[in-house]
Amino acid sequence: MKQTLLFLLLVSTTSLFAQTPAKRPLKPSDVYRLQSLSDPQISPDGNWVAYTLSSVDSVKNKRNADIWMNSWDGKESIQLTHSSDGESQPRWSPDGKYLSFTSSRGGLSGSQIWLMDRRGGEAKQLTDLKKGDLNEYAWSPDGKKIALVISSQADTSKSKTPKPIVIDRYQFKQDVEGYLTKKTTHLYLYDITTKKIDTLTKGIYDETSPKWSPDGTQIAFLSNRTPDPDRNDNTDIWVIDAKPNAQMKQITTWTGRDNAAEWSPDGKQIAYLRTTSSENYIMYDQSILCVISKDGGEPKLLTKTLDRPVGTPRWAKDGLSINAIVTDDRTRYIAQFAVVDGKMTKVLGGNRTFNTIERHPSGNFLATMSDSQTPTEIYVLDGGNIRRLTKHQEAFLAPLSLATVEGFSSKSKDGETVSNILYKPANAIKGEKLPAIMFIHGGPVAQDEFNFDMSRQMLAAAGYAVVAVNYRGSNGRGLDFCKIISADWGNKEVLDILGATDYLVQNGIADPEKLGIGGWSYGGILTNYTIASDTRFKVASSGAGVSLISSLYGVDQYILQYDNELGAPWKNFDKYIALSYPFLKADRIKTPTQFMVGESDFNVPSPGSEQMYQALRSLGTPTELIIYPGQFHGFTNPSFQKDRFERYISWFNKYLKK
Known about the structure:
This is Acyl-peptide hydrolase. Keywords: Acetylation, Hydrolase, Protease, Serine protease, Signal. 17% of the residues lie in helices and 35% in strands. It contains eleven helices and 38 strands.
């Protein structure tokens, strides 16, 4: 009898384990499974949230976005579109009966607005724009009109012989957009009933980001109307009556950048963000939350003394306060600011990152949020409480055993304290020294946060301790911390990277004989600076970087940065020479280095990587160059995203896991 009971217990236990498959590490092919949520929109009655969900079709090797809808109580989740062409910009009609979106489905040459009855049925094409590219749109409060943002179209003639690209602009290149010509972007009014389109703005300047006043009589928008917009980063907020031939009025006059305009509930004020700097070129900066009368005048700077970037302002229902997202040390939290005096109340924080917020008709808020173990989902905020609304990432996370994530601070050689994040493999043995990779963020004005980081999780899954270093130049630590690297690239940042590396070694986390470094964009640039400064790294991967700085003047999109931060090369060539030391002293580099870049990258173009590859190849230092066809600075081809991860791991393994 005892043997029978023991047998039954073993069978039962075995069956239980069989039903619970073991978790596995992340692998490169998981890029095909990760979905991306964005652009949540709350219905006028508050019962539904529409959003886009982007998924990968691995067979077609493309990412496609569909429109989904989730009930506010979280009980229902409905996929509304299934087109292979993709949809974006879901927007509710003011009466809540319809959901609109943009798509080029059905073989259209450009995006049009489509209208879907929320009660069911197929979406119908609403607009039929013959010329120009539709960029944005916004419903009027009464639902009778739609404000359109349309860019004049480039030459689309079907001639077998393409026409020459004629350039006469100061800044003439932009990643993804390509060569910039004299296209203009203007506002138009579309009548829902008559389908008539009226011109609202015209001329040589661009107008974007339309926001209707609550009573529907006016539209606020952004425009840079300086004599030569290409030579500065200015934008101002303007207001125009919502009718043809109306005169626009300038509301803000800051010579820096004003943006993100939001009307107050009573329509008397506009909340917005403005840069701290009033200079022509704005790189090392952080945004300030402001409020101004709809008629203009002196603005009230609500967060002038906060010394942290503020974003996504949203008015409270009573108009007495404004909720916004604050970027702080490795986090982004939600705070409320009193309109009368700017007093801040922290609403919701923690080791996580809030990305967007929207106000519910009840006065509560909705947000998109991510943490170190969970990719972005949509959440409902009720005061200080948070409730998860969507659960799209559960299938992605179910089979995975993710890295553990913790923050730590390190001291640099010159005494600066730097904030970092450490990723350890899920199966790491306590006290064991690990091969380590310093994986450096781009920007430089950005920061690594306690959000879901696919790249660092992927490298940790391959058996590495991975470190994100928020070097000087990063945001989240105040303006002085950010600005200190201006025109002094590759100096203090390298000290910070080496300080974090020292911490890992001194605390027994990293094996000093198995150190690697890598990064993309400014992370790639800092990789080059670091391996030219220190030979301790056994392997490096530099993505979309540059070292011979003067060689990209006029080749990349940063003409304003060169002119305002370094000066013209023919006047200040000594600065360019000093900042080019990884290339000009490439014989110092002993680290085997992999270089990667997108073929069509106009942000940090391929010559930056090609030059460094050629230098190391000429010197006999182990190196390789991978160029991804048709890719911009940010990759969109899923198979190339997978390939990049595979090549990272293979290259690091070659030198750190012999």
